[in-house]
Design brief:
SAM_O-MeTrfase; alpha/beta; Rossmann fold; 3-stranded antiparallel β-sheet; 7-stranded mixed β-sheet; Cation-dep_OMT; globular; 319 residues; 9 helices; binds S-adenosylmethionine
């Protein structure tokens, strides 16, 4: 990564063009011209590059003139353009979510409670419910229930014979969840377990339930993700899914300013050697999520798909 990109990490920036610093940055990653792409000596090369940049500029203007969309394109991936969600576009996405009335009510009640931002978003809940339906899942586990939004979305689509083990350590939140299971008429499908998730998962394994679950959703203590994942990998059958929430952690996983060490960068600019100091933020939660994402990337026991929905979810299928 070029040092020029550091200041724009996880922020949207207005367009800026510095011809003599040979850096052109429009939004985070929407249009980056790296220093190497500009040649001041070879004019033909310069013209070619300029034309190429004009094309990119036109594409960007075309997309911006009709909307707020931010389009990221990366030449390493065949110039595929990827839409980044703006508030206006996200509002549109939410308008296209079929949120059951009981979930809407639960969201309303939770809105005034402490920690309401922890709830999964309606579009995430809809995706979870759809995955459960596609799998034809009968036996599910949720780690981290809070007031029950995601667990209720799952329970609503489970068949009558289905069962969801819902682990939560906070009694007050779990009471709200139980109230809504009752109101929705799905209490008989949910086995709400008050206590630490690790204890709950270990007792399921001791109970001989390994390999008997179809679907699991992890949304509790982020630093424990790896431990939850290992136990759930035992509990879920081959072909079953484990979904992990918050894998993008508000974008911080990709922010180079969040790291373990203070850093000093050396780079050349117009043939001069510059030194740049970037203070690094030590954030153990982000680092643990980043490490866990990396481990999943390398884990041959599962197929994976990281989905940029809500705060990011990774869907893992047990091989
Ligand atoms: C992000 S919230 C879950 C949100 C929920 N999935 C929803 O959509 O409403 C995380 C929850 O995990 C619970 N939690 C955190 N650590 C836990 C642990 N070790 N065992 C059980 N529950 C835990 C917290 O009390 C909190 O309610």
């Amino acid at each position: 990564m070029s040092p020029h990109e550091f200041p724009v990490a996880s922020q949207l920036r207005p367009a800026s063009f510095h011809p003599f610093s040979s850096t052109w940055v429009i939004t985070n990653g929407a249009l980056n011209v790296s220093p190497l792409r500009w040649s001041y000596n070879a004019s033909s090369c310069y013209c070619f590059r300029l034309r190429e940049c004009r094309c990119k500029w036109k594409r960007l203007v075309r997309s911006c003139s009709t909307s707020e969309f931010v389009v990221a394109s990366d030449e390493n991936y065949g110039n595929k353009q990827v839409v980044s969600l703006t508030p206006r576009l996200y509002e549109y996405v939410l308008k296209n979510v079929r949120e059951p009335e009981i979930l809407r009510q639960l969201r309303g009640e939770t809105a005034s409670m402490r920690g309401s931002q922890m709830q999964v978003s309606p579009d995430q809940a809809q995706l979870l419910a759809m995955l459960v339906q596609i799998l034809g899942a009968e036996r599910c586990i949720e780690v981290g229930v809070y007031t029950g939004y995601s667990s209720l979305a799952i329970a609503l689509v489970l068949p009558e014979s289905g069962r969801l083990v819902a682990c939560e350590r906070d009694a007050k939140s779990l009471d709200v969840a139980k109230k809504y299971y009752q109101l929705a008429g799905v209490s008989h499908k949910v086995d709400a377990k008050l206590g630490l998730a690790m204890d709950c998962l270990e007792s399921l394994i001791l109970n001989g339930e390994a390999g008997s679950y179809d679907f699991a959703f992890i949304d509790a203590e982020k630093k424990m993700n790896e431990k939850y994942f290992e136990l759930l990998l035992q509990l879920v059958r081959v072909g079953g899914l484990i979904v992990i929430d918050n894998v993008l952690w508000h974008g911080k996983v990709a922010d180079p300013l969040v790291n373990k060490f203070f850093c000093v960068f050396l780079y050349f600019q117009l043939n001069e050697l510059d030194l740049m100091y970037y203070p690094q933020v030590y954030d153990p939660k982000t680092i643990s999520i980043r490490n866990f994402n990396q481990k999943l990337m390398e884990d041959k026991r599962v197929s994976i798909s990281m989905v940029p929905i809500g705060d990011g979810m990774t869907i893992c299928r047990k091989r």
